[in-house]
Design goal:
It is built from 3 helices and 18 strands. It is α+β, with helices and mostly antiparallel strands and 255 residues long.
């Protein structure tokens, strides 16, 4: 009886977290450079289940391993590139291929993102709204006189035909672990961090944005399945509650 409560209750909490992640994906379906996220579920506290019986032939046969509950053990991010959309704005940039733009965030320090929906602030520096200043290949801010500039495929910014600065296009090392610190914004928390991407592994496209890689049809099917799972677990909890109530109030009176 108790095992059933544990299983149903953990199913509710697990699906609640999964539904929150799916809802966040749907909310960011139009966010430039956003990467789809999903939860990874695993069993928790596996144990061996035995039969209890006065008969040795019955008691010696184990039922097998089981688990009281499942948990959201981790989150998975799909870094697959999204489709590219032309905007015509000179401050909009997209990466075709490997790499991330490097941005200096006041809250998290240096962060990485595929969102190239940049602007120029009052100080004439290139920045990503809500995140921070875009960094160059020397990991310093990029100063521009106006939005009248061009960007080469290698990320070189030029004003009136003269090179002004170069974007830092970062690529993470294999052992690097990244965590999400915002919608489409990531920070390296373990491993070797990031390096400058090699020329030829990426192309910077000016006047273009990378759209999110969200598959709306897939996300909607996930949310329907998750909601059904959530409702099933709540119904099981109600059934167990009814059984316990009858056990206490009705069976307990017998005798």
């Amino acid at each position: 009886m108790v095992r059933g409560f544990y299983a149903a209750a953990s199913g509710i909490f697990t699906q609640q977290k999964a539904l929150n992640v799916i809802s966040n994906n749907i909310a960011n379906a139009t966010t430039a450079g956003y990467k789809s996220q999903s939860t990874m579920e695993s069993s928790f506290g596996e144990h061996l289940i035995n039969r209890i019986s006065a008969l040795d032939s019955v008691a010696q046969n184990n039922i097998g391993p089981g688990s009281f509950m499942t948990v959201n053990s981790s989150e998975y991010t799909d870094y697959t590139q999204g489709s590219l959309e032309s905007t015509g704005r000179s401050v909009d940039m997209a990466l075709n291929g490997e790499g991330f733009f490097l941005v200096e965030s006041e809250t998290y320090g240096t962060v990485l993102t595929r969102n190239g929906q940049f602007e120029i602030d009052s100080e004439g520096e290139l920045y990503l709204p809500g995140v921070g200043k875009v960094l160059n290949d020397g990991e310093d801010t990029i100063s521009l006189e106006s939005s009248n500039f061009t960007v080469s495929k290698a990320g070189v910014l030029s004003i009136n035909g003269e090179e002004a600065d170069t974007l830092f296009v970062a690529v993470i090392n294999e052992e690097t672990v990244m965590k999400s610190v915002g919608n489409g914004v990531f920070q390296s928390v373990e491993g070797g961090g990031y390096d400058q991407a090699e020329i030829g592994t990426y192309t910077v496209l000016q006047g273009t944005l990378e759209k999110s890689n969200i598959n709306m049809a897939q996300e909607m099917s996930k949310i329907i399945a998750g909601q059904n799972h959530y409702n099933s677990c709540t119904q099981i909890i109600k059934m167990y509650d009814t059984i316990n109530e009858k056990t206490v109030n009705q069976i307990g009176r017998i005798g």
